[in-house]
Amino acid sequence: MPGDFIVKRPLLWLALAAILVYIVSLSFGYTELDDSIFIRDFQAYNEDLHNLLVSFQRGLFDAVKDPYYRPLFSDVMILNYQLSGTDILSYHAVNILLHMTAVLLVYKLLVRVQIKELTAFILALVFAVHPVLSQAVAWIPGRNDTLLAIFVLGFLIYAIDYSNNGKIKDLSLSAFFLLLAFFTKETAVFAPPVAFILLVFVLGKKWQDKRNLLLYAKWVGCYLVWFVARSLATTSSSGIASKEGISETFRRLPVIIQYLGKIFLPINLSVFPTQQDTSYYYGIFAIAVLVLIIALSKQRNMKIVLGSLGIFLLFLMPALLVPDRLNQQTFEHRLYLPIIGILLLLPQTVLFNNKLTNKQLFTCSVAICIVFAAINIYHQQSFASPRAFWTQATETSPNSAYANMMLAARLDKDEVGRSEELFRKAYRLNPNEKYLNFYMGDMLQKHDSVAASEKYLLAEKKNSDYYLCDFLLARVAMEKKDYNGATNYLATYLKKDPKNSMANNNLLLLYMQTQQPDKARAQVRQMQQIGMQVPPTVLHQLGMQ
Q: Is residue 61 over pLDDT 90?
C-alpha cells in the first residue's frame, strides 16, 4: 500500500472506540437470562471471599450436577460483587473494561504476527465495534468470552515472544495465561493448536525447533493440571464425547455458514439465535464474497489463508460440540475468539492488497467501522431490559419455545391475553420445555381451573422439580380436600422458601385443622424465629401464651 500515513497513539484510539460504542450499556438492567442468576441468586455465594477457592471444586450453576466448569468466571463475579454488591451498573462497566483490554491485545497479537501497524489498527478497530460481538459485552454472562479472549491472547503473544527470543519469562507467562484460559472456559483446549498454526503456518517457524518443543511440553503440562482439577471437582460430564454429542455436531455444521454471514453482514443478529430460525442466505453470500476477495488478491499467502481459516474453525469448534440437552442456541458471543481467525485472513485479501493509499484505506475503513458501530449501538438496545431482550428473541427466533415462554412471563398485567397466547404457543412448540408446565399450571389457577392445573404441575415436578410447583400443588390438594397432601406440599415448598408468609400461615392452619398440635407449635416457633407474627388467638389455642 503506497503512502506513509500512520495512526498516532493507536492503543488510545482503540480504547476510546471500545468505550464509546458500549458506554450506552451502562444504563442497562438485567435480561433475565443467567445474569440474574449470577448476580442476584448467587448473592450469598458471592459475598463470601472463601468461595474464590471453592469455585475450583464445583460446577458453575450447580455445585454437583453441572457440566460447566468455569471457576475463574465465578471468581470474577465474586470480586465484582465485592466492588458493588448487586448494583448492575458496575457489572456492565467491568464488561466494557474487559472488552477494551481484549481489543488492545488483539492489536498487539496482529502486530506480533507481522501484520503492518496500520492494518493491525484497522482490524482491531473492527473487532472493537463489530455488532456480532455485542452480546459478549452488553450481556453480563458474555464476559466469560471476553475473559477467555484476554487470557488466550496473552498466551499467544507470550508464546510467540518466547519462540522469537527464548526468554524464560515469556515461556512462564505463556504457560500462566494458558492455565488461566483453561480455568475460564473449556474452549481453551483449542488455544495450543491455534498457537501451533500461528508459529508454523503464519510465522513460518520450524515445528521441531527446540524452543517450540519446550512450548509444546508446557502446553501438555497446563492441560494436565486443568484436567486433574476438573476431574476432582464435583461436576458432571458434558456429554460432548458421547454418541449423541457426535451426531449433533454433524447436524450443527451448517451453523458455520450462519456465523460467517453474521461476521460479514451483521444485519440479522439475534439475542437468542437458533439454527432453525437463522437464515443461510447471508452466510452463502459471505462465503462467495470471501472466496472472491481472496482470489482477487495478487499477494495472498495461501499458508496464512488456510491457517487463518483453521484458527476460525478451531475456536468455533466448541459451539458445534455442545449437546442440545445443554444448549440449543447459536449465541453470537461465541464468535468473540473465532473472529480473530477472520481478522488474520483479511490482510491476504484484495481489501488490503490494492492500489489505495494508506490514507484512503484508513478513511474507507473508518467509514465502515462507523456503520458497524451504529448497528452495534442499535442492537445493544435489545439487551437493555427483560422485556426488550425477550421481545427481540421471539421476533428473531419465533420457533423457540423458551423465548416465547420467557416473553409471556414478562408481559405487563394489562397484556394477559397476549401472555397466555405466547404460553400456549410455547407449549405447542415444546411441551417439555423447562418451567413451561409450571407457567401453564399457574395460568390455569388464575382462571380458577385448579383441578386442570394439576397435570401440568406434576409434569413440571417430574421435569425440573421446580419448587414453586409445590406451592400451587398445595392448592390443588386443598381443593380435593387432601389435607395431608397439602401439608406435605407446603412443608416441601418451605424448605426452599422458608420466609413466605402465606405458605407459613397456611401450613400452620393445616396442622391445626388436622389436629396436629405438636407440629403446629413447632411451626409457630419456626415462624417466630424468622420474625413472623402469629395471632394471639392462635397462641392461646395452642397453649403457647
A: no
Using CA atoms, how far apart are residues 31 and 21, in angstroms rounded to an integer?
A: 19
Q: Of the candidates 386, 401, 417, which is a domain's last residue?
A: 386
pTM for the structure as a whole: 0.91
Pairwise CA distance, residues 87 & 99, whole Å: 20
**Interatomic CA distance for residues 90 and 140, integer angstroms:** 10
Q: Could you tell me which of 20, 26, 24, 25 has the C-alpha nearest to residue 128?
A: 20
Q: How many CB atoms lie within 10 A of CB 140?
A: 25
Q: How far is CA 247 from CA 96, 200, 252, 273, 433, in A?
A: 37, 32, 9, 21, 22
- Return d(Cα 85, Cα 62) in angstroms, integer: 21
User: Could you give phi then psi for residue 58, rounded to 5 degrees?
Assistant: -145, 170
- For residue 515 the three cell numbers come to 389436629
- Is the domain of 211 the same as that of 355? yes
For residue 329, the SS3 value is: strand
Core vs surface per residue 170-179: b (16+ CB within 10 A) or e = bbebbbbbbb
Domain count, the chain: 2
Same domain for 380 and 502, yes or no, is no
Query: With 60 as the cut, is the pLDDT of residue 379 above it?
Result: yes
Mean pLDDT of 419-431: 96
Rg (CA), the chain: 27
